[in-house]
Design a protein that fits this description.
- With 782 residues, the protein is an alpha/beta fold.
- Among the domains are: 2-85, Immunoglobulin-like, CATH 2.60.40; 92-182, Immunoglobulin-like (Sandwich), CATH 2.60.40; 206-297, Sandwich (Immunoglobulin-like), CATH 2.60.40; 343-546, Rossmann fold (3-Layer(aba) Sandwich), CATH 3.40.50.410.
- The protein is built from 10 helices and 45 strands.
- The strands form 9 sheets. Strands 24-26-34-36-38-40-44-43-42 form a 9-stranded mixed sheet, with helices on one face.
- Strand 27 (343-351), helix 1 and strand 28 (394-401) form a beta-alpha-beta unit.
Length: 782
Amino acid sequence: VDIDPATNKLTGTTTDVPAGSPVTITVTGTDSQGKPVTEQVQATVQPDGTYTADLPATINPNAPIEAEAKATDNNGKPVTDTDNSAGVADGSITVDIADSGTGQISGTTVDVAPNSNVVLTIKGKDATGADVEITRTVQTDADGKYNYQLVAGDGIADGSSVDVQAVTKGLNGKDVSATDTLAPQGDNDNDPNTPADPGLDLVAGAITVDIDPNGHISGTTTDVAPNTEVVLTITGYNENGEPIQIQRPVQTDADGHYQYDLTSTDGIIPASDGSQISVVAETNDRNGHVLNAQDSEIVEPVVKGDSSTGVTNGENSVTGTSGDDLLAGDVGGLKTNFVAGQDYNISIVLDLSGSMLYAMNGTGNPPAGESRLAIAIKGLKAFIQQMADHDGVINLQIASFSANGSVGNGYNQVFLNVSKDNINEIFTYLDSLKAGGGTYPEQGFNKAVDWFDDISTADFENQTYYLTDGEPNSSQSTLDNAFAPLAEQSKVFAVGVSSSISDATVSRYDNTDVNGNKLPGDWSGTNHGEAKAIADADKLIAYLIGGSENFTPADVGGDTVKGGAGDDILFGDAINTDQLTWTGYDPLQYPKYSGYSKLIAYLKAEVTNGAEPSQQDIYDYIKENFRDFIAADAADPATKGGNDTIYGGAGNDIIIAGAGNDVIYGGSGNDIISTGRGDDTIIYDLLNAADATGGNGTDTWVDYEANDKIEFGSDFFEGLLADKSNLGDYITVVDDGNGNATVQVDRDGNAGTHNMSDLLIIENQAGLTLQDLLNNNQIIIG
């Protein structure tokens, strides 16, 4: 008998055995599970003496088999034969988990049937460090290969080690197995020259960061262990506009979140206070990968030159952003009867009788723009511009008068909270006024009284401006009776438009003194103010606005102006725009000392084709023409100035201090400085110890005077003797060959670290020497 496992057949031959005789074959082996099995099968002898039978299905052909065949020969004697099959060799299996940490498990088998189960036992750690064991069953393919992909849902955390065992059965039914291990994240070989092992890496690490305008920093992480350090690198500017960078470590919480709040001790100004700020957050995920993210708060440059941006004529603190700003310490303008910060209800009681259409000298049909009404309207526009620039609330009434029923008596309009937002609406209303009829001032007095009765006066001061061009048609008693309640409710400032009315007539209906204060006691025909009738247009408008026939600049305060970073333009006082003229310019509407409003009108006429100029338009024009603004201040000794302190900060700034005893800190960058009139001081502090000029750059001083000073911080020079006897080793003044003097500094004298470097170019002062400065006490140390 022969066993053929390949064909699952039992075959054999006989001698001297009759054809057709039975052959009994006893087969002993194992089943597919390796259990012993004995089966008998029958075969029949063929005429040629051969026989064939199938191997029993219960017998594993790949395992060892023993077969015994029995038959009877022609003599009736039993004959037997045996055969043995060793089966196939033991199977084998491999398993591999990818060293890259992807979680890919794969393997091969030999002598293992296709579609055989491979049982994978996988062990690792979860996110809390606890042991995890999972079992996954896969099948071999036609080539004996298999694979499995670990996923995050299997519960083994990134960075964990992974042990895997693979078990299957060979063709002979015997178990075969293999193991592999993925090392945990870290430097497992203790060799800093080799890369660290990643451990399992199924989840992509990530970090976010956000900083809000108030300096609150927050973020989230993915695949980062709790209590992992996140390093925040925060870049911004300090209160003087100098760049600063700090690092602050924080930890993730159980949810992977983190946060930090900037504090004053960090020294960085938040975006809410106008300083650009950025943050970079960096950490490592569970696999040691570096993660980072960044965010920033961008701030837009500002222009602060009028009351709408918080600038007043008081003692202001005006702060810019980290961009290219334009800042003025005061709004300026003309002296008025307004007190800074006070709220007002103002009634304009305006004569619109027919004679207001005459020229100032009384002739009829004057050229366009030269009638009494046209000049009054120009003056009112200039006055209302001052209202819009005032830092308190002003409610305005336009109350006309003429004969009852006449066109000139038909106007009574109120504008609440006069500002640049509604000033054009007011101007349009003024341009629509028409005159006609007689002169009946009581009509206007009554309108003003009714309005003051209706509008809230809590914390508001009432003022009335009474403009008339002729003697009243009404009786004096009628006027007195109408004026008395108005005089009780309000200050009344009267002015005669032209000389057609007497000073006495306009004075009778005024109740203020020369300082704009309401007269004590009740108004009467004998207790009244002093007013004027003025025929000159300029003087009329000046008198209307400020109570004087000459335009007078408004008083301004001592301000603190901080530019911050950026190339800023900084005015210590108001912006002097008296030099500006343009096609169609009307000096009655924009008289001397009009300031910022005149600049806007100029730009609309000459730069923006009538459109409201942008902040960039304003900034660009002044930057290109800054010397004109310096010259305008220098040309008028009446220009007012406060004792201001100006900080340029980082950037190449233009600083125009104006009048007053000012203190200027240029800061880093190459600044252009105009100190203006007054006893001024330019201060150089040590901003960068490694820099030859202490981080101050090279500045240009355009209008040096012998009464001004240069002051150095106490730590600016290294090794300077207390008696300053070696000052010549540290400071020198040389001519630059262009008509200027240059102050040079060597911060460590002759020590060798620094050399003489240009600190300050003083324009038009060729020949100036260090000794000159010392003789005038213009050099201050500490």
